[in-house]
Amino acid sequence: MKKTAIIGATTNPGRYAYMAAQLLTEYGHEIVPIGIKKGEVFDKQILDIREKPQVEGIDTITMYLGPQNQPEWYAYILSLRPKRIIFNPGTENHELERLAHKQGIETEEACTLVMLRVGNY
Question: What start-end ranges are recorded for coiled-coil regions in this protein (predicted)?
Answer without folding.
Answer: none
